[in-house]
């Protein structure tokens, strides 16, 4: 039986997939996003190992609150770094009739083995992905996250090819991701995908800055103010223009 390394759990989530969700946050992430508000999930912290059965038994205590669309969402960190655990968790969840969702930046994706075969199997027991587009430009993406985006773009296309439903999320960060040219380029990419059910623009905020300070990590966006509500709506309009 696989063991997952858990950062935290929330019993009632309403913004991480359809309906009411039981949220499982896994430890570990390879990205170093400048705007990250969960910097404390970067390290693969092994202090709270849980089995799939433990988590599903816990989740089902709240099942009566989920409604017809609710279920479990696994986030992080980056859940795909623990793909063996995630595959077992979701396989057992589907056996219990539980809706499954992954909140991911897709960063670990590769068509190399053994990851790709496991990912193919995982998609068979995954109902929805909440997938981040951090930045469409490869150079700016690496400057913003510390990682390239070619494999991430490839994963979006793969998910489109297999018809796996996704909600796209884009963090609107002034000076980084709010340029109209980049937004229009992102919109063209989204328009070419055949599996997008929803597009969400998340406004940058600095509420997690204190975590960087506590961990002794320089926060490079200090002083950056979040976008206005009007700017968020403009960005949403651009990104949805091809839908």
Q: Kindly provide the radius of gyration, computed on alpha-carbon positions and rounded to a whole number of angstroms.
A: 18 Å
The separation of the N and C termini measures 42 Å
What is the CATH topology? TIM Barrel
What is the N-to-C succession of helices and strands? EEEHEHEHEHHEHEHH
CATH superfamily assignment?
A: Aldolase class I
Strand composition percent: 15-25%
Number of helices: 8
Describe the overall structure:
The protein is of the alpha/beta class and 243 residues long. It has a single domain (4-239), classed as Aldolase class I (TIM Barrel), CATH 3.20.20.70. Helices cover 34% and strands 20% of the residues. It has eight helices and eight strands, in the order βββαβαβαβααβαβαα. It has helices at residues 52-60, 83-95, 115-124, 138-145, 150-162, 180-191, 209-215, 229-239, and strands at 4-13, 21-26, 49-50, 71-75, 99-104, 128-132, 166-172, 196-203. The chain has an eight-stranded mixed β-sheet. Strand 5 (99-104), helix 3 and strand 6 (128-132) form a beta-alpha-beta unit. Helix 1 crosses helix 2 and helix 2 (83-95) packs parallel to helix 3. The longest helix is centred in the middle third of the chain and has 13 residues, at 83-95. The mean pLDDT is 96.
Write the layout of secondary structure elements.
Layout: E1 4-13, E2 21-26, E3 49-50, H1 52-60, E4 71-75, H2 83-95, E5 99-104, H3 115-124, E6 128-132, H4 138-145, H5 150-162, E7 166-172, H6 180-191, E8 196-203, H7 209-215, H8 229-239
Main features:
eight-stranded mixed beta sheet; globular; TIM Barrel; 8 helices; alpha/beta; 243 residues
